[in-house]
Amino acid sequence: MYAYGEDNETPAVPGEAAVPDGGGWRGLRPLDWIALIALVAGGVNCGLIAAVNLDVFARVLPSAMATRVAYGLVGLAALHCVVLLFRLGAEDD
User: Fold this and answer.
1) Theoretical Cys-Cys bridge with 80: which of 1, 14, 35, 44, CB 3.0 to 4.6 Å?
2) What integer pLDDT is reported at residue 19 of this predicted model?
């Protein structure tokens, strides 16, 4: 027996979940991926600061200003990811 997906008219294979082409994690834009990667890097850095008092950003980047810019970009990435969560949540409805 065939089941039809919500967005398309082609029959889905029985037993497989239909994944929409434009939604979910596969439909993320490159800026979304960059923000997620920056957020993960910032989270790992914060974890290392808490665990072993090692600030990787400060060690790798050449100046204090560059470190502050990196922290600012991680903050902007976090704000973008909040918007991303709301966007992905609205697509599920």
Assistant:
1) 35
2) 47
